[in-house]
Each structure stands twice: as structure tokens, then as C-alpha cells.
Amino acid sequence: MRMTPTVIGAAAVTLALSACGAPSEQAASEAAEAGALRIGVSPVPHGDILAFIDENLAEEAGLDLEIEEISDYNTPNAALAEGELDANYFQHRAFLAEWQENGPDAEFAYVTDVHIERLGLYSESVESVDDLPEGAEIAVPNDPANLNRALRILEAEGLVTVDPEAGETATENDIADNPRDLVVTPLEAAQLPRSIADVDAAIVNGNYAIEAGLTEDANVLAWEPEGEDYVETYANGLVTLAENAGDERILQLVELLHDERVLEYIESTWQGVVLPVDADGAVVGSAAPAAE
């Protein structure tokens, strides 16, 4: 395995548990013959999950992973479309759908769900939602899918009402009722952890919250609500070009991503901030810790 924490090209515990099922010798042989699988990931938790697979499961499966860590949300799909990656693992379906509407003409395949990173409302200055002052500034992700997701947290906490006609592409301009006159400020997702010191609260993606240590250092005022379509909409998954969806290396990685040891690793490492999703599309383990 080769892991490089860089942007790609121009575009862009070993556990004593039994596996769900050992990969077949034929599939392992075919995966090995195909060469290294180049996959772009967000560093946390995606890169950590793949590193765990590489260190504990990949060799037996005959799978060689070339893991490229990418810190932004724009490069991985562009690099996949241009052939610089064989797959990526950083996004949910809603983000992919929005990106494809505006991105290059490439047919992508969302192969499988792996985990959910819950968005949380974090603050360094207040202890609860009720303590947010009149005119409080709330920083939120600026990409359309996660901006809508963030607004739903504020709505669930009774802070705002979002125009229902805005649908899944709601922005701060679609706030129909704002009794506390909150100032909702969209920022690039990677900047949100650094913004917390300058705003009253921020809604941060789970991967960036973990990477910045927010789960230990900041108050969690609220977690996003779970709905019936929570996994379908917001699980992060493995994506490749449609023409490569049957690649033996991709299929081998799918099997490993749902191995019991990987599910246990995710659950024990991030303890509810990151929720593993099994091969049947069901969330495994406990929900995120309660907001304080």
C-alpha cells in the first residue's frame, strides 16, 4: 500500500474477530492481477478505515491499495472523471448527485454505503441551544447538500423554519422564519472547525470535527436528526466510474469494507460520531453521544 497525503495531479488493532466471509481464491487472484487500486479519500475517517483494511485484510484478499488522501471535496470526483483515480470514498449520494449536475460529463456509480458522519452543532462559547444569543452567528457548510442538511438541524432545534418549497437544495435564503435573527454564514466545510472561535456556533461535518478534535474540545449543542432515509441520503460510500463497477478490485474492496472487523473498528474508534453501515444498508451500533 502507498498512502500519500497530497492533492492528485493537476485535477485535482488487529482485532480477534472472525470475518463475515473470506474472499474466494479466484476473486483474490483476479484482484491481484489487476494491479493497485488507486482510491482517493478524505483523511479522516475514510483514510483511517482504508489503512486498517490495508494493514489487516487486504493482503489475504490479494488487494493492493494505493490510497491518496485529499483534503477538499472538489478534487476526488474530478480526478476520478479524468482517470487519475480508480475510485473514491468521501461523499454521500446527495453530494454526488449535486456534483454531477455541475461537473464533467462522466457516468459515476455509487457502489456501496460504508458509514455515516453525523453533523453536529458545536460551540466554544455557549453550553446549550437555549444559550445562543439574539443575532448569534452560526457557520454552516457551503456545499448545497450539506448546507441543506445543516439548516435541518437548526430547524429541528426550533431555531429557524425553512421554506418547505426549497426542498433538498435549501440555502440560508430559504429561511422563512428566524425568531432569534440568527446570522447563518456558509463556509467551506474544511474551514468550519477553525471558525468556531469566531462565531457563536458552527455545524461541522463529522470527519472535520474528528480531525480537529472538536468531539473532545467543544460543546456539542445538537446532533442532526435521523429520518427514514438517513442512510440512503447521507451515508458515505465507495464511488467509481460506471464502466468500472464490475472491476474485481472494486468488488473485493466492497467485501472488505463490510467485514465484521471493519465494522467493529469504526464503531469502537469513533464511538457514535461515525456510524458504520453494513452490507444490507443498516446502521450498526449505537447512535452518537448525547449533546451536552
How would you summarize this macromolecular structure in one to three sentences?
This protein has helices at 25-33, 43-56, 58-61, 75-81, 93-102, 144-156, 192-195, 206-211, 214-217, 230-234, 248-257, 260-270; strands at 2-4, 37-41, 65-69, 87-92, 108-117, 120-123, 137-141, 161-162, 175-177, 183-187, 201-204, 219-223, 236-241, 274-276. With 292 residues, it is α/β, with parallel strands linked by helices.
Explain this structure.
- It is a single chain.
- The protein is an alpha/beta fold and about 290 residues long.
- It has 12 helices and 14 strands.
- It has helices spanning about 25-35, 45-55, 60, 75-80, 95-100, 145-155, 190-195, 205-210, 215, 230-235, 250-255, 260-270, and strands spanning about 1-5, 35-40, 65-70, 85-90, 110-115, 120-125, 135-140, 160, 175, 185, 200-205, 220-225, 235-240, 275.
- The strands form 3 sheets. The protein has a 7-stranded mixed beta sheet with strand order 1-3-2-4-13-5-14, sandwiched between helices. Strands 10-7-11-6-12 form a 5-stranded mixed beta sheet.
- Helix 1 packs across helix 11 (about 250-255).
- The longest helix has 14 residues, at about 45-55.
